[in-house]
Amino acid sequence: MTVVVAFVATLCTALFAGASLYINLIEHPARIECGTALATTEFGPSYRRATLMQGSLALVGSLAAVSTWWLTAKPRWLVAGILVAAVIPFTLIVILPTNKKLLDPSLDRNSELARSLLVRWGRLHAVRTVLSLAALVLLLWAGGASP
Known about the structure:
Layout: H1 2-33, H2 36-72, H3 75-103, H4 112-141
């Protein structure tokens, strides 16, 4: 049972970190490269789709990592679980206000404000990427899915 839960923690953390890294290195820069108006238009559907996937991965990954800690008493699992879980409140408290502004229908999609919101969003999302990569490195360095 412990091996399965540890595997789920590692898998979910790896998928979350990979998706976050992809967004920061590929999708968001490409979105911005297309111009502010198109980038703000594309942001809504992309955000809506990514929210469900990344939110689920963060929640399941953190719960599985903390459960593995509970089963093994090895602190690496707790630390990794906390790192992955931290993306949830960070998103809700720090990133969500920027998301709401980008999704506001009254936002001039071709404005300097829209562009600065997109740039800010990319920087804020990078924090999520760093947290999840740190958790993944910790899990892999400490033995991956083997508790």
